[in-house]
Amino acid sequence: MFKILSYTVLTVMTADLLATSGDVAATWTSPILPKLLSNDSEVNPFDHPITEDEASWIGSLLNIGSMVGPLPFGYISEKFGRKVALLCIAIPHIISYLTFAFSKTLYLYYFARLLGGIAVGGGYTLLPVYVAEVAEDSNRGTLTATLNCFWTFGNLIPYAVGPYIPVVWFNVILTCLPTVFFITFIFVAPESPYYLIVKNRIDDAERALMTLRGGNRDVVDKEIKKIQAEIAENDASVSMWQFFQNRLYMKGLFFSVVLTVISQLSGINAVLFYTQQIFDAAGVNGLSSDVSSIIIGLVTFSSSFGTPFVSDRWGRRVLMVTSFLGVAIAHLVFGIYFFLKERKGVDVSSVSWLPLLCLVLFIIMFNVGLAAVTWTITSELFPTNVKSYSASIVSCTCWISSFFVTKFFTDLQHAIGSGETFWLYSGSCFLGALFMFLVPETKGKSFQEIQEILEQKRVLF
């Protein structure tokens, strides 16, 4: 099995480099915003500190760009192939980080965040699709879950490097990530066999599968027949209007959109974008906010390795319910800490370690399911012929939700209190755990089998 998967794994690992390039942008704000808010001209590239409102726009513009990203890259994916689309995503990443490195004006930072967001949205849309289409049914969950390992490594880099080097060199280093991906992906990765068969390029699909499956002719012949049967079962020329008229697709879209929104309402991007500010407000004694952020980054990265090994063993539902409940408990306790500190004026210095512990628990439990399995499920609920539509809609939904969570995080704290804000996230996660009992289990199922399960699933329509 591992011999057959060896080149498939190499291909997925190469694609995963783009995931790292994208998720650097999520925590990029954590070390950069304190510098932009500083009066120290040696750390602030601008000639004056930015305002809190300007800082919130820098943080949230990534999400606006991410709403747009699925559309152009989804079109490129359908017109020219998954490989070409993924290569194109690297280009705005490179331009974005170079702009951060050498610009000294706020509006260029806005432009770069927006451009980087377009690339992030495209990556979150297409990476799960590409990985799912090059993987085998029995290992699809495991290989898709590796995306989270590389996403979280991207989260770690700004925490570990950003506070300690100048803004220019920090962003120059970040530019290397999408550049390395672009070069290696050209030479290593084949086109998606599903895409090639949909386009009736059978010979090209056979060559791609021979490469991916280690030259095993029997495996390749069976897989081509299976893919052809799945495509024959679903009309390859579905329009957007037909997509929305299909009751089966709407079921999958309902599960995907609700799951994505609830996952974002866990507050993950608010935590990642504003990690240092959260620790400053919490008043963690004995550790600086920089060090606390690095600890969170290390926990994020290290805890991401468990899911790929259990995703295809335990199933999606078990991991997601466990993840939702764990995140809900972490937010509940974190909210109590802030409520006592800010609302009741209680001296919490004796438990000043609690915020760090809660965020560590939050990150570990988020990585158990929400971080990767959410995207695994949403990529599995649709047949190949409509994945471009579903992935674009789900990704747009994700980033619209993320925009509101990140843009109004500080406003919500001022309006209802920090403790109440974290309780709101906790309540969303409890609802998510209940919702998972409606979502079909997709472990080890072919795309056709998943469609048959959806046909039998009765929910709202």
Describe this structure in words.
- With 461 residues, this protein is mainly α.
- The longest helix is centred in the first third of the chain and has 29 residues.
- The protein contains 24 helices and no strands.
- The two termini are 41 Å apart.
- The chain is globular, with a radius of gyration of 22 Å.
The helicity comes to over 70%
What would the average pLDDT be, to the nearest integer?
Answer: 84
Q: H/E element string?
A: HHHHHHHHHHHHHHHHHHHHHHHH
The total of helices stands at 24
Number of DSSP strands? 0
Task: Provide the β-strand percentage band.
Answer: under 5%
Described by the principal axes of the CA atoms, the overall outline is globular
Instruction: Characterize the biggest β-sheet.
Output: none
Rg (CA only): 22 Å
- The stretches of 5 or more residues where confidence is low (pLDDT under 50) are 1-5
Gap from first CA to last CA: 41 Å
Structural class: mainly alpha
Brief descriptors of the model:
disordered N terminus; 24 helices; globular; 461 residues; single chain; mainly alpha
Task: Offer a concise description of the structure.
The protein is mostly helical. The chain contains 24 helices and no strands.
Element layout with pairings:
Layout: H1 2-27, H2 29-36, H3 52-68, H4 70-80, H5 82-102, H6 106-134, H7 140-161, H8 167-188, H9 193-198, H10 202-212, H11 217-233, H12 240-245, H13 247-264, H14 268-273, H15 275-282, H16 289-303, H17 307-314, H18 316-343, H19 354-368, H20 373-380, H21 387-407, H22 409-416, H23 418-435, H24 447-456
Helix pairs in contact: 1-5, 1-6, 1-7, 1-8, 3-6, 3-21, 4-5, 4-6, 4-21, 5-6, 5-8, 6-7, 6-20, 6-21, 7-16, 7-17, 10-11, 13-20, 13-21, 15-16, 16-19, 17-18, 18-19, 18-23, 22-23
